[in-house]
Automatic annotation (TrEMBL):
It catalyses: alpha-D-mannose 1-phosphate = D-mannose 6-phosphate. It is found in: Cytoplasm. It comes from the Eukaryota. Its cofactor is Mg(2+). This is Phosphomannomutase. Pathway: Nucleotide-sugar biosynthesis; GDP-alpha-D-mannose biosynthesis; alpha-D-mannose 1-phosphate from D-fructose 6-phosphate: step 2/2. It comes from Moina brachiata. The gene is EOG090X0BFR. GO terms for biological process: GDP-mannose biosynthetic process; mannose metabolic process; protein N-linked glycosylation. Belongs to the eukaryotic PMM family.
Length: 250
């Protein structure tokens, strides 16, 4: 198998693909990506989280200089070789009226939920998306894990998203479950395929995408299915390493 580094791009989701959900990358995974994979292919990260959280998980405050591309918030905040190359604002795009209509409804819905525990920050406003979290983002790791288990059984997020889709069919907003305790809300088209707009002009022969939430409704679905990418569904960071080892004969 012979190819040049600049011909192949590998894009990675973070939670469940390079790290366990919301946890830091393991030194062995980092070592594999940086020292085995990166000398062979171009590498980018495409996370739903904001840059601060991605940097925490990748254990490097300066991670934008470490990888060829870093796409935070699905690519709505985009870096190439350490330089900011794009930033979108949901506020400007959607407008305050629609945003408040949505936020007020979502807060009302969450006020009627009874969960094992409820903490704070139920809506987190980011640059390119709004994150909605029924348990509250300030929960502890143990409370996060507890909600994730509860949600598997009681489908709190699935029902919430279903309700929002019925309630707001015409707002042009997408509701996407990416992590363990929350879901993201953004304008149609502002899913992870947004990141492809930046890389498609860079002339790669192949763009591979690795993610775990590839089913419909998951935040890796659109980019996984996109004709511009070769999609790889993974089940854990170990599986990601296994698939890369086979694919690129590392
Ligand atoms: O995996 C990406 C998701 O990570 C977090 O999800 P949660 O807190 O629910 O585990 C959030 O940052 C979310 O926006 C993001 O899509």
């Amino acid at each position: 198998m012979s190819f040049k580094r600049e011909e192949i791009l590998c894009l990675f989701d973070i939670d469940g693909t390079l790290t366990k959900p919301r946890l830091r990358i393991l030194p062995s995974t980092e070592e594999f990506i940086l020292n085995k994979l990166m000398p062979k292919v171009t590498v980018g990260l495409v996370g739903g989280s904001d840059l601060k959280k991605i940097a925490e998980q990748m254990d490097d405050p300066n991670l934008v200089s470490k990888f060829d591309y870093v796409f935070a918030e699905n690519g709505l905040v985009a870096y190439k070789h350490g330089q900011l190359i794009g930033k979108m604002s949901i506020q400007q795009h959607v407008g305050e009226e629609i945003l408040q209509k949505f936020i007020n409804y979502a807060l009302g819905y969450m006020s009627k939920l009874t969960l094992p525990v409820k903490r704070g920050t139920f809506i987190e406003f980011r640059d390119g998306l709004v994150n909605v979290c029924p348990v509250g983002r300030s929960c502890s790791q143990a409370e996060r894990d507890q909600f994730a288990e509860y949600d598997k059984e009681h489908k709190i997020r699935e029902q919430f998203v279903e309700d929002l889709r019925n309630q707001f069919p015409d707002l042009g907003l997408v509701f996407s479950i990416g992590g363990q305790i929350s879901f993201d809300v953004f304008p149609k088209g502002w899913d992870k395929t947004y990141a492809l707009n930046y890389v498609e002009k860079d002339g790669f022969k192949e763009i591979h995408f690795f993610g775990d939430k590839t089913a419909p409704g998951g935040n890796d679905h659109e980019i996984f299915e996109d004709p511009r990418t070769i999609g790889h569904r993974v089940t854990s960071p170990e599986d990601t390493i296994q698939q890369l080892t086979t694919l690129f004969q590392l």
